[in-house]
Each structure stands twice: as C-alpha cells, then as structure tokens.
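Let's do one together. I've listed all components of the complex below, 1026 residues spread over two lines.
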Amino acid sequence: MPLPTSRPTPSGGSGPDLPTATDSGTGVGAGSTGVGPSHMSPGEFRRCGHAVVDWIADYWQDLPSRPVTPPVTPGQVADRLPAQAPETGEDFGTLLQDLDTLILPGMAHWQHPGFLGFFPMTTSGPAVLAQMLTAGLNAQGMAWATNPAATELEQRVMDWLADLMALPDRFTRGGVIQDTASSAMLVALTAALWRRAGEQWRNHGSGPGYTVYTSTEANCSVHKAVRLSGLGDLQLRRIPVESHTQALRPDLLRQAVEADLSAGLTPVAAIATIGTTSTTAIDPLPAVADICRSHDVWLHVDGAYAGVAAICPELRWINDGLEHADSYSVNTHKWLLTGFECSPMWFADPAAVTQAMTVTQSYLREVTGDPRQAPDYRDWQIPLGRPFRALKLWFTLRWYGADGLRAHLRRGVELARIFADLVRGDDRFEVVAPSPFGLVCFRLRADCSVNAQLLKRLNAGGDILLSSTDVNGRFTLRMAAGGTATTADHIAHAWSRIRAEADRLTGTGHRSG
Amino acid sequence: MPLPTSRPTPSGGSGPDLPTATDSGTGVGAGSTGVGPSHMSPGEFRRCGHAVVDWIADYWQDLPSRPVTPPVTPGQVADRLPAQAPETGEDFGTLLQDLDTLILPGMAHWQHPGFLGFFPMTTSGPAVLAQMLTAGLNAQGMAWATNPAATELEQRVMDWLADLMALPDRFTRGGVIQDTASSAMLVALTAALWRRAGEQWRNHGSGPGYTVYTSTEANCSVHKAVRLSGLGDLQLRRIPVESHTQALRPDLLRQAVEADLSAGLTPVAAIATIGTTSTTAIDPLPAVADICRSHDVWLHVDGAYAGVAAICPELRWINDGLEHADSYSVNTHKWLLTGFECSPMWFADPAAVTQAMTVTQSYLREVTGDPRQAPDYRDWQIPLGRPFRALKLWFTLRWYGADGLRAHLRRGVELARIFADLVRGDDRFEVVAPSPFGLVCFRLRADCSVNAQLLKRLNAGGDILLSSTDVNGRFTLRMAAGGTATTADHIAHAWSRIRAEADRLTGTGHRSG
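Okay, and this is what the predicted structure of the assembly comes out as:
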C-alpha cells in the first residue's frame, strides 16, 4: 500500500493524492482553521493505519525469521539516531521505514516463538485491536464522570474475570485494573498501612515499627513497594522456603510474626505468592491466612503469572485460601492474551484503599462522585489519570470465550509437561522444582558456571531465549512456554539445542536409558 | 468493510472466506498445533484491523455530532452488559457493534471539539499509529537487554525533547518516560528521601521528621505522593499563594523551612509548579530554588500541562530557574499530541533515583546491565515492566517537526487569548487569573452559587464541557483550549452559550461598552 511521500500543506487541506470526501469535517487531525499545525488528515490516517495493520500482521508472520534477541551492544542503536528532532515534519512512510531499519534490528522480540525466557507476555488479535481503539478514543477514566462507560465496563468485566477464575465472593465489585503487579503491590501495602494505623495516616513518624512479611522467593516488587512506602529494608522479613517446593514455610512465618510482636513491633502485611517468578512456587495460603487473621495482618496475594490458571477447573486448587485474602492481583498481560499492560486486582474491602488514597482538589469537584453509586477509580490507584484498559480485557474474554481461554492455558501447561519429560529423560539434567504451569526449571547436574555457560551459548544462537534463576542457591535455567506462537515443534527444537550444547560442554552424548 | 460473521474453526485454520496466502506461517494468532485456542488468523487481523482504523477515522469525524458528555446515570451502562463472560468465543463484528451501541453512548469524548474542561488530552494520527505498533510489538523494556532499541530510542528522544524545550544541560541523558506526572512525583520524592537519608533507606522509622513543601495550588498528586511515601499528611506544608498570580510566595516558603529547621525537623523536598492545574500559575522558580539550595532541599518541578510550551521561544521564560531543579516532569499527553499516557521526566542526577529504586532478584540476572553504559529503566520507575512509549514520542516529534509543534501550541494560546478578550468585553464577567497558555479562568461577578449554576447549565447542553476550580476561595469556571479539533468557531460558540446562559441566570443582557 503506497504511503504519502510528501507532507500535507500547512493548512491541513488535502493534497492532490488524498480523497477529499473523507478529509472533510472536524475531528482529531482535521482542525478547520486556515493556519496551524499540519495534523494528519482522516484520509491519510486511514491509509497509513491500514499500512500499520498490515505491518503488524507481517511482523508476526516474519517473527520466526528474526533473531529473538538482537546482536547489539550498548549505544549501537542510539548512534544511528539523529542528535536532534527535525525542524520540519517528516512523512509517515519515512517513519515506518526507520522503524524497520533502525529499531527492529535492535529489539528483543517478545512474541517470537522461541522467546522462552522470563514469563510469556502474551497478546492477541482482539487485544491489539482494542488497544488501537483505546488509543483512538483517548479518553481517560480518572472518575466515573470522565468516562462512565469505561468505569462501568471495568467493574463488570472484573466481575466476569473473578467469575471465570472462581474467586471468592468477597471480591465481587471489588475489582480494578492496575498497570502492573508492582503498582498493585504498592497500593495493597498502602491500604494495609492505612488500616493498621487506625485509618489515620502516619502523621507521627512511621508508627510503632511496622513490619512486612514475604518469602525469600517473592517478586522484587515487594521490596520496591516496601521502600516506596517509606519502610526501611530491614522492616521486610524474608521468610525462608521449603527446599523442594520453594514455598514459604508457615512455621517460620508464625515465628517471625510472634517474635516481632514480642519485640513491640507491628506486623502490617504479608505477601503470599501463587506462582513465584523464580519457579512458580505456590505459598501455602490457608496456613499463611491463619497467621494473618490471628494478628490482624493484611494478606495480599500476588498471582501475577499463575493466578489466571484458575480459569481451568483442574488448576483451580491454586485458589485455596484466597477466601481470606484482603487483596489479590494477577497479570492478564502475562498468560491471558490481553497485551501489556493489564493487571486486574481485587479488594475484599475497597473502602480500605479508597480511604487511604483519596486526595482532592477543587478542580476535581465535578468529577467526584458517590462511591456507593459508582467508583472513581483514581482513588484505587497511584496515578490520577487512567487509560481505558477494560476494553481490551472485554474484547479478549469475548473473542476467546471461556473455552478458548482454557484451551490456550492448557496448551502452555501441556508444552511445559512435554519439555519436563524430555529433561527427565536425559540423566545429565534435573528438573529442580515442581512445574504445574508453563514454566520448567532445570539444570545440568554440574557446576553453576557450567550451567551459566550453557545458558549463554543457548541464547547466543538467536533462535531461542531462556532465562535463569537461583534455586536453593544453584544456578538454574528457566524455560517458559505459553507464548501464542510457541508450538510443540519449537519446544522440541529448544530441547535439541539444549542437548547439543550440553554435548559440547560436557563432552558427552545423551545418556538416557 | 465486511467483518467475519462466524468464528474460525478451533484448529485456527482459515475459514472459507479467509485468504490462505496470508494465513500461513507462525506468529501471534497463528499457532500451528492441531488443537488449541482459536487465535485470530493473520488474515482476520488484517481485515478487522482495517475496519478498526476506519472506525477510528469515522469516530473522529463524527465527534461533533455526539454529546461531549453522556446523559447517563450510574449503573445505566453496566445494566446493559451481561453478568458473565461468554462460554464460547464471539466474532469481532459483534464486539465492534457492541462498542458502538453499549459503550460509546456512555462515554465522555475527550477529543470532542467542545471538550474544554480540565486540560486537553491531545493525541494525533502519528501517535495513535505508534500506539498500534507498540501494541503489535508488545515488547517490554524493563531493562536495556529486554529491549535495547526501545531503551536507546527513549534516551535519545528524551534528549530531543529537552533540546526542543531548551532545558538546562544538566538534564541531558537524564530523561525517562513515566506513565503520568503522579508517578513522576512519587519517584522524585522517593529519590529526595533517599538522598536526605544519607543515601541509606529509612530503617529506623521515618527519620527526623521529614517535611515536604508545595503551594496550596499544587496538583493533588503531591499529596498522594506524600501519603504513598509514608509521610503523614501533617508533614506536607502547603504554602499560600499570591492572590493575583496564584503563585507560591517564596517569603512564606522560607519562613516555613526555617521554622521547621528550628523545630528540629528535616525539610526534604519542595515541589514547584509551572502551570498549576487550577489556573496555570507559575511558581517563582529562581526564588524557590534559592531556598532549596540553602538547605539541601530537593526541588522537583511539575510542568505537567504547561512545561512543553517552552518549545515556543516566546514562552521559554517559563524555564527560568529550572537550572537548579533536581527533577522535572511534563505530560506530552496533555498538550503535545502523543496520546495518553506519556510523561517525560528528567533527573539532574539519575543515580539518586536508581540507587533509591534498584531492587534485584536472581531471575533478573541476565538483564541487569552496567548503568554507565545503558540504563535499565525499571530502576527509574515504580513498575518493573514498561511499555514502548518512546515510539509514539518519536513518531509525533518527527511527524510534526519543531515548527509543527510550535504551530499547534500557538494555536492553543491564540484561542485562549481570543476567549479571554471576549470575557473581558462583557462587564458581567471577570478573568480571575493570568492566562499565558491555553486556559482561561473566569467567573460571573456574582455569588458562587450562580457560577455553579452557570456551569451546570452549560455542561447540560452536550455541545461543550467546561470545568471549575476555586480561585481565592471563589467558584471559578475553566475554559481550556488546545484540543486538536477545537477551532476559533468552537470558542465563539462556547462564548455565545456562556453569554446566553448568563442572560437567563442574571436576567440581564450583554452590557459591554
């Protein structure tokens, strides 16, 4: 599709190659004053937009031919970019071309079928289309009044998701979409501190030694939230895990809480995880919840990666204990196809967070409603403004339907099972943690340095990307299935690469029985 | 353009109406396993995507025919939405149709030419197209290594913007894109607290009575950041403003800081504003900076709305004093055409923030780089993950060029000048604060209740939306120009509506000389 090769005239009028019928009228990019900036005309937007849609479809189809991570060194991309912005506007064809030649070669491709590192960050056709619409609408929902439909759709679709995941009733109408699980963590901790401070804020210092509890395996966002909320690093208690499961040890949690209470400190919050980032370990929620209830400690549950697996009945056991959580967050942008960013979060008592977070000014007078009628979601989150993220969750849940979502999740679990079986079939390797979801943690039965070397060689090939972690102090490789483009063939290929590099590193061939 | 009316088969294969040539290959939505979820095929994505692009262009062109805010009451939209997600997938045509019939009638249209409330939240063709591409790439840049090109483009384009705005050299290579100015505020305060605490975190309570200073007119995000960072509400000092300019009074700031020092407290940060949300007042930065430097107080400057005006040489005086700021943030999603969200922020010493924010785990080992070579932007912000926002800033700056950006900004200023002149020409009204940018604050010379009534009647018409604030304790209307679709005709129409409602309310006609 040909793109405009010259800029429109400064008057914003149609160039000779632009259809005049679609260029009339006002709207974004069509200001009718005779002088002013040269906004993109509606006709140009249509033509360039169609080209962008095709570009995305081509990109997805061409992904397997690209290296999953780029062979670049720091500064290499920047060095090819001009030092200054242009004085006069450039045409869209040039921009798209520069994306191809300057940017793409320096990107890691998270949608690549060989992207098996970290966790998958899935998106989908309906999610991308919804994000386009969100960008076009460009309306923000800081309050019910500034976007009533977005607010009500969010509340409804969060109830849909809670229902799909069979969450406890206490979360009904308590849902909100955060950008990321890190922000959800900070919001939860803020609400916990508010509640513990007798619903007054900490006007007289940080109070009687507030303490926070999580496992040594919890996501780094716990630590970040503790810091941001003004507690010292030493006020975060990292409870050891059981070595085989990598799950928090509730006996040690209870000891820590009781020791702090004896020392005159004030336990405020515990963060348990359903599916840790390191190994997808599942903390024993019922036991953790017991301790929290005994001592009025806020229980936040981080299900960023694995929480959505509860959509499948056979994995719903992961919810056990959630009925006692004060807050719960998941990322649909990891495994549930909505694209980045989308972090659904639920509160058992939304008033705890809105009371802690609400600050007002007279310029928001017209958009401050009655929370009993409709939420002003600005008071449920860190930023004041908020994009219309509910649209992509709505589109994604509807396009796939519950059965389509289950099929997608099950494929990730199935590919991980296939991979784990391959690893177990080679006695040079070991699977080092349970793999109930899409992640398999494994290692060569060899020194950490050999495993680090293995990972380095694997990732240098450009066809696959794995990542690593430490499990019980030992360097471990992580293979995360669940990306939409990753098939059994890609898993088989990854394993053949791993075996071949192991052959070279260990000087041995495959020794499975 | 016809959209698919039936779902593809579960195998993900092409239906009879889908072109097979474009449907082959892997990629998002084209998994090749025989069983699995029915991802959208590339052919469907192209067809639906073209329809979405046309939908957006149509939406922008049809905006003037819609009410700027919807005549709905709480619950009205939600009541029409099903209680549960569908069990099986729905086709995309149905989704788009429901957007039209269920959602749009309940939305406030921020891109409407009559949207004159709050501040404009502008977007543009190139920004929306970049957001589409960002959604399609769906790659995240938590670290240089997870998206080298996005990281380096962000650093470069932030230098471009600093150069366009003629920012002090100290901010070069100190730029990062936050989601919103609220998040920027919290990050700045966190860095300030870190620095003041001797670059150690607050392990022993909140320290020796940390205090924060801002004007009574500062954005509510200052208050929210103070709360989130664990300081009490009473630790925020709200310094009164000069009544004519609504700018912070530096004499009172100095008194407050010195009184706190005498009382053994520790002043940590001051937040000054270039263009307050209420009236676009400009705090006296040089005087504020003087006080901050005398007492080692971190100076954060919030230029969320007005900061980008410095792209115009005739408005560059607003930067006066920025050479002493420790951090500075603006929103390009307000006046600079990039769409929501995009909040560029600069640090004079990025190490202050990265040291305060950096937390690590072994699973991030491969993506932790040397900050002297390339930034890992996760350590510059609250969330761990981050979308590729630099792309839309790059596209927007290049499409418009410096002269196009200046033309756009100048049109907003010009429309505000036209409006202010109209208001001044009617002696029933008064302009109550300086209006150097796109905002005019005005009121009837009458009781607050009459002004509140005036606003209510104006906004009930559906053709325009204004908002309000309090200035020197009196109810004041706000008219914000700068939206891309708003022209001199719309400003004239708004004024005729205002005059007509004033006639009815005051029982008088126009009495200008």
